[in-house]
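Problem 12. The chain below contains 218 residues. Write out its predicted structure in token notation.
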Amino acid sequence: MDTIRVILADDHDLFVEGLTALLQDAPHIHFVGTASNGEEAVDLASEHTNADIFIMDLSMPKMDGIQAARELKKRKCRIPILALTQNDDGGSVSRAMKAGFVGYILKTASRDEFVEAIQTVASGEQYFSDRAKDALIFSMTGRERPDKVALTKREKEILKLITAELTTNEIAETLFISPYTVETHRKNLIQKLGVRNLAGLVRYAVEHGLMDEESDEG
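Solution.
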């Protein structure tokens, strides 16, 4: 197999370093360039037109991955793009596909899955992780994944405000409820979602795409 030339766009330096280190001994995979935001990603594709695959984070400053992919599509870029993200919700997968991504993999994927995804996309085929495919199917059928916890409208509102780093009193003022009620919901969320603290709540919300959902259900 010929060398697979990879370019990578992600705004988290530690993740970039971790991924490149994880794959440094992978056969035939060679990173030729990195970008830290969407605008740099577009420029990077112009600098490395002979790249075999572009691994792109969906959440980046200045221009997110979806916008960057659309811009590359306008510029007739022929490099296949693999979405790299923490979001495993159907909406994110669908948006990525419409923007021109030909693959979708989670940041929590194993080394072997990363290698498989890179080799598959570089060979001209599509690669979508099992969770991405399941999320898309459940999204299209209007059903929730079995592992996705159902939250009430109020719980989603509070979780979004927690993720926005509002204090208990600020959340109470925003939702016109008492601080005691906020704390009760917070404790219930921690127990319901099986996490240990506020950081766990935020991580769960991001990883499960809850911040992209509309809070219109009770």
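Discussion. The radius of gyration is 19 Å. Students who got a different answer should revisit the alignment rule from Section 12.3.
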